[in-house]
Amino acid sequence: MTPDSRKQLRKQLRTARRSLSRAAQQRASLQLVRRLSQSRLLLRSQHLAFYLAADGEIDPALLLAHCRRLRKTCYLPVLHRWPATGMGFQRLLPQQRWTRNRYGIREPLANRKLQVKPWRLDLVLMPLVGFDDAGNRLGMGGGFYDRTFAYRHRRQNWQKPVLLGLAHACQKTASLPVASWDVPVDGIVSDREQLLLRPGLQRS
Ligand SMILES: Nc1nc2c(c(=O)[nH]1)N(C=O)[C@@H](CNc1ccc(C(=O)N[C@@H](CCC(=O)O)C(=O)O)cc1)CN2
Ligand SMILES: Nc1ncnc2c1ncn2[C@@H]1O[C@H](COP(=O)(O)OP(=O)(O)OP(=O)(O)O)[C@@H](O)[C@H]1O
Q1: What number is the ipTM of this complex?
Q2: Where do the annotations place substrate binding (predicted)?
């Protein structure tokens, strides 16, 4: 797949998710809570990274609210200031102050003291633009998640964190090409299915 066709596919999948009705979005968000709130994966995780849905992404907000009620420590991605290309995960505060990143996505006002090393997290919910049955993923194209978790290339079987991609079922494609820098996810959950790819990640 050429960079151009990757770009085309990304555009097409982003349009598909943005075209979902509000009702379909709400149903999908509820499905996420149903699938994940009682899962061992969630129950066992104390430090969890979320995202604030944008651009028609499946919305984990209900799940985030659930986790905060359970007193789990929840984090959101914060982009390092341009031209830096890094991304941190910052702990959410009860009285959070907000800003917008360079793409217009709301994020916590940066405070490095509240950011953790990615390997300290137990579970990272990653927004996907596209995915296939093998667990290959297509993101927004910034490479932020790939760079943050690149350390996984150097050592197989990192226990932490579990990377769980979230997407609408309509974002599934036949097969995605893998780039050398792509960090595979350990599982993918959509409103219709859950693929657990890492051996040892248990169902239910
Ligand atoms: N909700 C959410 N938050 C997130 C991400 C995400 O995918 N979803 N990210 C995941 O990485 C990071 C932000 N990454 C992003 C990367 C590209 C674009 C984007 O809209 N790119 C433009 C091109 C802009 C340009 O070239 O300057 C585009 O595709 O139109 C948005 C977010 C951190 N926060
Ligand atoms: N480990 C890395 N080191 C340096 N650059 C990287 C790394 N990983 C990815 N990149 C760069 O990021 C760019 C975007 O990669 P890609 O198209 O795979 O994004 P993506 O997977 O859709 O985005 P994301 O990881 O944010 O979800 C690529 O041009 C690539 O060169």
Answers
A1: 0.94
A2: 52, 57
